[in-house]
Specification:
The protein is mainly α. It has helices spanning about 5-15, 20-30, 35-50, 55-65, 70-85, 85-100, 105-115, 120-135, 140-150, 155-170, 175-185, 190-200, 205-220, 225-235, 240-255, 255-270, 275-285, 290-305, 310-320, 325-340, 345-355, 360-370, 375-390, 395-405, 410-425, 425-445, 445-475. It is elongated and about 120 Å long.
Length: about 500
Amino acid sequence: MDAVAHYERGLAKAEARDPKGALQDFNQALRLDKNFAAAYYSRGQVRLVLGDHKAALEDWSQAIRANPRYGDAYFSRGSLRLTLGNFQAAVEDFTQVLWLNPKDARSCMSRGLAYRHLENPQLALADLTQAITLSPQLAEAYRHRATLYRHLNNYPAAFTDYTQALSINPNDAEAYQGRSQLRQQQGDLRGSLQDCNYALRLDSDNPNLYCHRARLRLEVGDQEGAIGDYTQALRLNPKLITAYSERGLAYGETSEWSKAIADQSQALRLDPKFALAYHRRGLIHYRQANIGAALDDWERALRLDPTLAEAYNHRGVAYAKMEELDRALRDYQQAIKLKPDYAEAYNNRGLAYARQGNINAALQDYQQALTHNPQYAEAHYNLGNIYVDVGNPRAAIEHYSQAIATKPDFALAYGNRGLALQSMGYLQQAIVDTQKATDLFLQQGLQAYYQRSQEALKKLYQLHQESAEAATSGGNPSPTNSSGGLSFPLA
């Protein structure tokens, strides 16, 4: 048999899914003809199937040396380089294909992907748009451009492109996943879950999709459903570190502490340098009131990743609980330095300043927290408390109301708004708020607050009765600007 016969038999074996047999024939063809470009190319394809990436790249390079105008070899080499993260080399290969054939839409699309990974969004967008112009039915190009738009925060354009991709190819699971992630970013959790479910029907063996749906379920408060999804992801990939760590967080939300700790520990066995798992295990220890173990884990997390702002913030909370306010402030400041828009760290630093009596600094931090997150109920609540302290109950009521609008079951905000209303003489409204706070404290099992709220309510009814009697008799009503020493601080 000559080289061409071995080559053709190799193609037949490759078509019959016999890559090892095909490899033998391509080898024989190249022994007979060392400049057989097509044999190099096809052997590269077989080696790719067999997982030998280095040999595949070398074969395609040999094919190009034998035939410098071999567009398919440039494209295959560029595609593998893109997959392996050699983005600049991939750009060069796709550019060569486009020099040979300027109307090659797939090469244009693939070069756009490489430019996106090289953080050159302008060139990426130009190439993806050109790919769509060249091939208006290329669903992948719409999907990739949608993902680029999403990262550029152009959500309307991203939504349009994902939807167009799905109209062309209704079985594109990745487009459903991308649109699900987009809807999640926009706060449309119902739509996001719907798209994720569609994606899973099309790609039910994808552990990352189960993890994505688990995160969505956590956002809507479905901890049990999230745990089930993480468990399914781990059945599909028992070494999926993030699934263990995130399932551990879900177990923490259901107070299954031993399972929560076990999952974080398993993640760390799989990757002892996974700083986030130390951080998360620290959170679980803290919620169990095991502050020493929490501090140890956060220390390990920060040794592995000194940029982990969340670990500094939570360690600051632990220090504050231990009354080590100076250490807490240092940690909050470091968290803010690493993450200047970290609303929670500003709020926590404000609490520490307030406890030190630095009211102005506390007020500025609460305002800064609300600049970064205007819907931050706790920051509104804390700012309301500051305004009470400085004698501005009207401003306090405004912020307590904002806190309640964002978090309708915020018992503490109802309680303190009632006290502020009382101080302004609005007894009837104060009774309504204090009654609501009392009911919520009881529902939430906050016994100490419930008892204090009952005391405040009793005093309000007494004041209201005295005021009514005084009005009837023409006397002076009792003063109403005292809360009897009661207040409801945020623990």
